[in-house]
């Protein structure tokens, strides 16, 4: 899969770099001069890239990454002042669509967080299925400090961490450390910066080793049942697991286990 890069307005470099290797596609935010801020153009590019990945059966996992001291600083405030109601609606709706696409993607998405993740950048981490952070990483929803409450970042944030902690982040704008994010459930692992890529690879390797069909069935079922009461969740889970068990990959996996051999996944 490839996308046509669009040059960033400041440097002539693509503001999203798409790289694929061994079943893993990396989407690298590439606006260092703007602290990897999510301009409308970058949001659109991410949305388009994710839509293409959803249809690409060679992609088994996705990593969202950047370089430097900032993972993502949120919306680009330089293009947000003095806009019309329609402009704001378009920007926030595009962002919401992209964040939801991360969740709806058949493939798992991992945030590789090497630095600050603020506002919509924190939202992006929360929207990902998994997140690995360097020890130096910090997370914040500081919109309240500039008069613009982080209402859309709040949506996935409160679905990751306890409501009172989320509310404290939203009301004070104070950052939390990587270790606090780990304790809160916002990230899965915290490692030294020089081990960040290895930690991400450990997760992607495990994902790629499993049936892509089974992974996609499981990811969808996970999010589908979250908002259901326990009885309804079990009903949904029974139906999904029954369907899963009838698929070729499940039969192959169980047979391979009994025969003490590696399974041959077909994605069916």
Automatic annotation (TrEMBL):
It holds the Pfam family ECH_1. One of its GO terms (biological process) is fatty acid metabolic process. CDD domains: crotonase-like (cd06558). SUPFAM superfamilies: ClpP/crotonase. Keywords: Fatty acid metabolism, Lipid metabolism, Lyase, Transit peptide. The lineage of its organism: Bacteria, Pseudomonadati, Planctomycetota, Planctomycetia, Planctomycetales. May play a role in fatty acid biosynthesis and insulin sensitivity. Belongs to the enoyl-CoA hydratase/isomerase family. The gene is paaF. It comes from the Bacteria. One of its GO terms (molecular function) is hydro-lyase activity. The keyword Lipid metabolism applies. This is Enoyl-CoA hydratase domain-containing protein 3, mitochondrial.
